[in-house]
Amino acid sequence: MKKLMFTMLAAAVTLTTAQAQDNQVKRPSKGAIGTELQFNPFSQSGTTFSMEGLKVKYFLSDIDAIRAKIGFDYNRAKEKDVSALNGNFKFDIGYERHLPLAKRIDFYMGGQLGVEKGFARTKGKINDKEYTFRGAAVGGDISIPGQIEDIFDNVNKDNRAYTSFNITALAGFDVYIYRGLYLGTELGFRIKTGFLDDVKFKYDNVSTTLEDNGFTTNVGFYVDPSIRIGYTF
C-alpha cells in the first residue's frame, strides 16, 4: 500500500508542477503507438536484476487500444561451491478502453491474457565431484543421502521452475506530463493457474527425477507497485 501511495503522490506532484504547460499535452489518438517501461524504485528483495515490464500499445481509435507486454526477472546466488539461479519470463497481451477524466488524466480499464515461464538451476560440488539440479534453485550444503530420492527434500514449490497462465481484469490511470510523456499505475483482479516442472538431479554417474508437478490455481486482486513511464507517438 505504501508503494501505491508513493506512486500516486509522485504522479500528483508531477501533475501540479506541470499545470503551466497544459497546451503542450499530446493525448493519444487513432493510430498512435505507445511505449512504456515499468520499473520499481523500491527494494527488489535481493533480486540481481528485474524489469517489471516493457509494454507496447496501439490505439485502434481515440479510446481503444491493444497492448503487449514482456517482463523478466533474474537472480543468482553463489556460496562456496554452490551456484543457484532462478527467474522468470512473462508475456501478456490485452485490451484497454480509455476514459479521459481531465486534460492530463486518463483512466482506463480492460483485460489481458498472459503466460509466465519460471526457470531454476543449481550447480555445485560434493567431494570434488559436480552435481546439478535442473528445475530447482537449491542453496546451502548438499549431501548425498542413503536413498538418492531423498535428495529432493530441499526442493519445494518456491524454488522450482514452473509454467503458468493467467487472465486478468485491470484498471489504471495515466497522468500526462509533457506532450506524449506520462506516468501511471495499475491494479486488477487475476486468475492464475499453472504447474511445476520436473526436477532432475545428477551427481557423478547417478541421476534421478522428481515428477511431482503440483497443479495450482490462485485467484485474487493485485496492485502493481511499479511506476509506469511511457511515451505516446
Spell out the blueprint of helices and strands.
Blueprint: H1 2-17, E1 33-39, E2 49-59, E3 64-79, E4 82-100, E5 105-126, E6 129-134, E7 162-178, E8 181-196, E9 199-203, E10 206-210, E11 216-223, E12 227-232
Antiparallel strand pairs: 1-2, 1-12, 2-3, 3-4, 4-5, 5-6, 5-7, 6-9, 7-8, 8-11, 8-12, 9-10
Question: Could you characterize what this model shows?
Answer:
By secondary structure, the protein is mainly beta. Helix content is 7%, strand content 59%. It has one helix at residues 2-17, and strands at 33-39, 49-59, 64-79, 82-100, 105-126, 129-134, 162-178, 181-196, 199-203, 206-210, 216-223, 227-232. Strand 2 and strand 3 (64-79) form a beta hairpin.
Annotation keywords:
Porin, mainly beta, single chain, 1 helix, 233 residues, elongated
Major beta-sheet overview: 8 strands, antiparallel, barrel
Uncertain segments are 1-9, 11-20
CATH architecture label name: Beta Barrel
Named CATH topology: Porin
SSE run:
HEEEEEEEEEEEE
Strand content: over 45%
Whole-angstrom Rg: 22 Å
Number of domains: 1
Overall pLDDT metric = 84
Short account of what is shown:
By secondary structure, this protein is mainly β. The chain has one helix at residues 2-17, and strands at residues 33-39, 49-59, 64-79, 82-100, 105-126, 129-134, 162-178, 181-196, 199-203, 206-210, 216-223, 227-232.
